[in-house]
Specification:
By secondary structure, this protein is an alpha/beta fold. The protein contains 4 helices and 4 strands, in the order αβαβαβαβ. Strands 2-1-3-4 form a 4-stranded parallel beta sheet. The chain is globular and about 50 Å long.
Length: 115
């Protein structure tokens, strides 16, 4: 196989493997985070959230997060989720740059249904 094709394929596979690994690590922490009073923030759109969501989660769409951060308690852990884990990754980074320290990206909202 041509080298110019192999390296991008390896990079893509490594990216998705890393994404799955980090999501798995966070999901192992979820029970203890919830015991600490964690807030689950679903950053999908209002329409996506109204279709289905994790009971007890707060819907703050990613587009609104910057202006609605004051609704979150920085003294408690925050678990962010979305449809695929991409928007929640962006939400986590945004919250951390604004001084939130205990923020965890759980990836998909449906992965939290078992808790």
């Amino acid at each position: 196989m041509n080298e110019t094709i192999i390296y991008p394929i390896i990079a893509i596979v490594a990216f998705f493997a890393y994404k799955k690994y980090t999501q798995h690590k966070v999901l192992k922490l979820v029970p203890s985070l919830l015991e600490e009073g964690a807030q689950i923030v679903d950053v999908r759109t209002e329409n996506e959230f109204s279709f289905a969501n994790k009971e007890g989660s707060i819907n703050i769409p990613l587009e609104s997060l910057k202006s609605r951060m004051n609704e979150l308690d920085n003294s408690k852990p925050i678990i962010v989720c979305c449809a695929s884990g991409s928007r929640s990754g962006l939400a986590r980074r945004l919250l951390m740059t604004k001084g939130f320290e205990n923020v965890h990206n759980a990836g998909t909202w449906s992965s939290l249904l078992k808790f």
